[in-house]
């Protein structure tokens, strides 16, 4: 099983301009990993169209691809939405970079609307000829709102070898879904992954799901990893350590709503007098000192998480 790293794992470094795609590729190799997953979604401090990439010019993308290949790494792409424009842009970039899998998700946070599923299914079916032509698979992620069953229904409705699932082992928690259940359901349909760890904590009085280094949270990472090895056709697992990060629950009720086991409430990873969990993702808004503290924590998180995944691979592969 190959292991890759998603650029989101260093989101603070990209936001602050202290890391670009070339230094990220080099860092991934330095960590002893096998591939990169490149997020092309715009954000603070990133390109307004291409995310962690600086351009879609043929010359620039050729340089990125050459760097990836020089380190002997695989490449996957992360984008969002299912519109013709979004998918076509991602396919063009993926093709230029030699990526054979694209992760996407259906809804912006707060815009979850299952009544749009027929429209989304039609959009995905319309993209199949392009995906087939370019030999690139599209993986639909459970992105904090959807349950595994909803993703499976989408994949089955599209009914194409070029459209499958993206199994994020932690995102189902926001819909009150047990991670082991998420993974067991999505594994047979999975074309790509995000491997991470989470806890439930409080932002003031509000319960939130919070990213932590892999192995330091509440997710049964052993069972999740072994399930991906045994019950999927995957040959790669991507590390996406969403830390520092926290997200609200997307549903009042889901497959469970008890604060036990995986959903046991635990202390927040940082002093709430300095920064609250829902402020973690953009700590520069709080202070320079807090930003530096969280950047140091993010670097540690990547190091710890990479070692945890290597240990799991040694144990189960």
| Beta-strand residue fraction | 15-25%
Q: Spans with pLDDT under 50 lasting ≥5 residues?
A: none
What is the CATH top level name?
Answer: Alpha Beta
Shape: globular
Q: Number of DSSP helices?
A: 9
Number of strands: 11
User: Which strand order spans the largest sheet, edge to edge or round the barrel?
Assistant: 7-6-5-4-3-2-1-10
- CATH homologous superfamily grouping: Divalent-metal-dependent TIM barrel enzymes
> What would CATH call the architecture?
Alpha-Beta Barrel
InterPro entries: IolE/XylAMocC-like (IPR050312), Xyl_isomerase-like_sf (IPR036237), Xyl_isomerase-like_TIM-brl (IPR013022)
GO molecular function, one term: isomerase activity
Domain Xylose isomerase-like TIM barrel: 27-231
Keywords: Isomerase
Explain the overall architecture.
The protein is an alpha/beta fold and 317 residues long. The protein has one domain (2-196, 217-242, 302-316): Alpha-Beta Barrel (TIM Barrel). Helix content is 38%, strand content 18%. Strand 5 (137-141), helix 6 and strand 6 form a beta-alpha-beta unit. Helix 4 runs parallel beside helix 5 and helix 5 packs across helix 6 (148-158). One of its GO terms (molecular function) is isomerase activity.
Please give a quick description of this structure.
Keywords: Isomerase. With 317 residues, this protein is of the alpha/beta class.
């Amino acid at each position: 099983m190959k292991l890759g790293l998603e650029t989101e794992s260093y989101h603070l470094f990209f936001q602050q301009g202290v890391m670009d795609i070339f230094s990220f590729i080099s860092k991934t190799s330095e960590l002893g990993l096998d591939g990169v997953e490149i997020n092309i979604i715009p954000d603070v401090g990133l390109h307004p169209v291409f995310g962690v990439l600086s351009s879609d010019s043929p010359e620039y993308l050729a340089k990125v691809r050459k760097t990836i290949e020089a380190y002997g790494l695989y490449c996957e792409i992360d984008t969002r939405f299912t519109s013709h424009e979004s998918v076509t842009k991602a396919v063009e970039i993926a093709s230029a970079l030699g990526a054979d899998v694209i992760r996407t998700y259906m809804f912006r946070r707060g815009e979850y609307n299952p009544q749009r599923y027929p429209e989304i299914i039609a959009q995905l079916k319309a993209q199949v000829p392009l995906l087939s032509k370019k030999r690139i698979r599209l993986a639909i992620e459970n992105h904090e709102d959807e349950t595994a069953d909803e993703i499976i229904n989408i994949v089955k409705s599209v009914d194409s070898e070029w459209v499958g699932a993206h199994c994020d082992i932690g995102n189902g928690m926001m819909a009150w879904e047990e991670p082991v259940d998420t993974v067991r359901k999505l594994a047979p349909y999975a074309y790509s992954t995000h491997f991470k760890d989470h806890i439930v904590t409080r932002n003031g009085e509000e319960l939130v799901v919070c990213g932590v280094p892999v192995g330091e949270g509440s997710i049964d990472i052993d069972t999740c990893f072994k399930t991906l090895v045994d019950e999927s056709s995957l040959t790669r697992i991507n590390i996406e350590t969403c830390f520092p990060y926290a997200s609200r629950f997307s549903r009042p009720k889901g497959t469970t709503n008890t604060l036990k086991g995986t959903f046991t409430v635990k202390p927040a990873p940082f002093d709430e007098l300095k920064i609250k969990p829902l402020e973690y993702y953009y700590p520069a808004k709080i202070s320079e000192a807090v930003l530096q503290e969280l950047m140091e924590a993010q670097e540690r998180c990547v190091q710890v998480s990479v070692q945890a995944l290597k240990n799991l691979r040694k144990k189960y592969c």
